[in-house]
Every structure is written in C-alpha cells, then in structure tokens.
Amino acid sequence: SARGVSPLLLRARPSAAVACLKIFKFSRHQSTCKWQSREKEQRRKRKKRGALSVQMALPATTPRAAARCPIAACAPTPPVTAGGRPRELPFALLAERGMMVGGHRGMGMNAVGAPPGARVGAARERENTLLSFGRAAEHAAVAFVEFDVQVTKDGCPVIFHDDFILTQKTEVLYEMRVTDLLLEEFLSYGVQKEPHKVSKPLLRRMEDGRVLTWSTEEDDYLCTLQEVFEHVSPHLGFNIELKFDDNIIYPSVNLNRALQAVLQVVFQYAGNRPLFFSTFQPDAARITRELQSVYPVLFLTEGGTAKHDDTRRNSLDNAIHVCQEYDLHGVVSEVRGVLKNPSAILKAQESNLAILTYGQLNNVREAVYVQYLMGVNGVIVDLVEEISNAVADFSKPDLGQSTFSNSVDIGRKHESFSQQQLGFLLRLIPELIQQPH
Questions:
Q1: How many whole angstroms separate alpha carbon 161 and alpha carbon 282?
Q2: How far apart are CA 187 and CA 165, in angstroms?
Q3: How many helical (H) and strand (E) elements, i.e. helices and strands, does the chain have?
Q4: Which stretches make up the GP-PDE domain (predicted)?
Q5: Is the pLDDT of residue 76 over 50?
C-alpha cells in the first residue's frame, strides 16, 4: 500500500521506517475532532433517513434487585446545561492528554494458571472489581479503565467479563450464563461484602479447556455498574464495553432491553465523568448510538486476527466502514490489526474517527511507542503502571538526550528508547503480528 509501511522497509531500514511511521502521526489538535460539528451533521443524517426512535422500556426487576440497582420509571434524560440544552460530553475530554492509557479490566486481566512472574494475566487484584479500578485511579497517567458490562435476568447491569460463571459444589462443576442469573445469585459468587455470607467458589476455564480455581493475591467482591459509578474516583474515565456472546444471534428487542438497562444507570449516575461505550456487537453499537447522542460509541474489532460469520467484524477496514455507516466515533482494534494496516489510521482521520488498540503487544513499551508515532489515540493495557509511565515519558520536553535528533524530527520530544531497540522491534513486528493471540 502506498500509505502503508512496507515489511521490507521495516526489516531493512528501521530509521527510514520510523520516518514513514511519522507520516501517520496526525495532529493531536485535529485528532480530538470537532465533535460538536460532527454531532450536528450526524443528527442531520439521522433525521434525513428517519432514525430509529426507541421508547425506553423497563426491564423486569424484583424488589430486591431494585434496591441494589434502582432503575428509573421513565426514559433516561441526558445531562443538561443551565440553559436547558443537552450537555455534550465529547470524546475529546478523554483525548486532551494526547495518547490515552486505559487499564484493562482495571489494573489488568487475570489469567488462571499463569506461571509465577508472568507479565500479562497475573494482576494482583481481581479484575473488574472496585479494588482494581481504584488502584488504576491512583495512577495520574491513566485516563480510563475498560470494563465489561452484562445485564442480569432481572435487569441489573453488572461487571463481569466471561459469558459464564463457573463454580463447584461437592466436586460437581456448575456453569451458569451470567445473563440467566438474578442479581442476588450473581453477587453470591466469590468473596462476599458481608462477612456473615457464605461465598460460592469461583472457577475459570482456560483456553485449553481446563478448569482451575480462580484465585488472586488481593480479592474483592463482584459489583454492579451503579457501584462502580458511586465508588470509583469521578476523575477516572470509563470505557464501558457492552458485552454480548459471540455465539448468539440477538433479536433487536433483546439488545434494546439490555442497552436500555445500561443507559438508565449511566444517565442516573455518570454526572460529569468522561466515558465512552464500546462493543464487538455491531448492531448493539448501532442501537446504542440511536438511543443516545451524549456519549461516544466505538466499535471493537479483532482487526482481521480472527474470523466471524458476521463480515462486519473481520477487518479493520470493515470496522471503519461500520463506524461510517452507523455514525460511530471510532474503532478499538486488536493492536496487530493496526500494525498490519497502518494506513487505516489515516483513513480513520479522514473520517474523523478515533483509533484505540488492545492486545498483548500493548504491554511492550516499544510497540506502544511505535503506535504513538503512528498517531494511535489510546492503548488499553494490562501492565498499567509500566505502560502509563512510559507513555507519559513520550511527551516530555526534549532534554537533549534524544537518540533520534540527528535522523528524525519527532517534534522535540524526549524518547526513552534507542534507535537499536526500535529497529529491533520494527524488524520483529512482521513476525509478531502473524503469531496467534
């Protein structure tokens, strides 16, 4: 591709490759995007084509669930200014600091069976808990935490990644779908908030099919979306991933019911917190965008590193097309998809879209730096402290120490990596992006 970086160039001329990557570093001032102008244009488009108008219906709730997760008896209304107009919360609120760093499920994911000393998957804190989110909030360089939201059978949004909860009783393994549980049942797993309650053990299935006890150095109880809003610092941004099972074809009514439950909690408790939604489910992204115009909606994609029956999910280019078609605000791609297709960043810029990435390569400082040069807006990482500190260094004023000062003008920034280190990474990238996740 004329706009891409040739693998041959990556192997043979690392310094020239860095210069080429600089082409894709678009202006941070421009990349924050003119969201208010974009919003006006999107409203015009939706009005022209007769955008879907959805009446917010209440999910069924039990009195006990309502006490833990109150849901308003009317449609949520966006926050308003003193003048009575909807208050815009543009994505730029998060993007102001340049490249954003987001904590993956808080301070990082848990991988059961991870060997001692493993860099990824061995977070001390239980993922997707108030403890993990609170620890991430202590790092000033962390812009947001990413977490997974599902809706229980009685209509309460809860924080949990896996589609199924696994437990064991009298040596018998039980596996329950999260969305088939009542709120009280969901909260009964793992460590309990009230000491007198007996907890049910949590297990987790590994990629090879084995089921192991899900233990962490520092445990915390499972929580609801409402509790996260109430107990996590309001200065920490939220990336709310709307979680749906890849193996289920959802009728629109089911998507609407779950999304309405989430939005009702968001509008009631978000306040001034910067947040955005993301999802792998393209129809859920579309409906979320149609249900509200206050918070940005981004489309999650594996960027071509996995194949799905729904072709909208099968490439970074397709993801950008989904954003254009559904008036979304950006893409969150598996990092290898971006490294394979760097010209997509320019395409996203031309469409006024943000580009964020996730994946294990985001725990390699040099790989994150290459994305910084390419103009990626944000990275979701497991090694939160290490990578957030590294990204903070990227934008420090040049103290005369830059190893690139004689070869590449990088905007008078201080870089903490030698040309030899980056050259090695650039030669390695073609091999890295071909490896299975």
A1: 18
A2: 11
A3: 17, 13
A4: 99-391
A5: no
> Which tens digit of pLDDT belongs to each residue from 147-175?
999 999 999 999 999 999 999 998 899 99
**Long-range CB contacts for residues 108-113, cutoff 8 Å, separation at least 24:** 108/132, 108/381, 108/382, 108/383, 108/384, 109/161, 109/382, 110/204, 110/214, 110/216, 112/204, 112/206, 112/212, 112/213, 112/214, 112/215, 113/206, 113/210, 113/212
Q: Which residue has the tokens 């926050």?
A: 79
CATH number of 7-152+223-432: 3.20.20.190
pTM for this entry: 0.77
What is the separation of C-alpha 167 from the centre of its chain, rounded to a whole number of angstroms?
A: 27
Which pLDDT value is given to residue 143?
Answer: 94
Token pair listed for 349:
């810029």
Question: In sequence order, which residues have a C-beta less than 8 Å from that of residue 260 and are 6 or more positions away?
Answer: 54, 56, 57, 58, 59, 291
Query: So what's the pLDDT on residue 113?
Result: 78
Whole-angstrom distance, CA of residue 411 vs CA of residue 257: 48
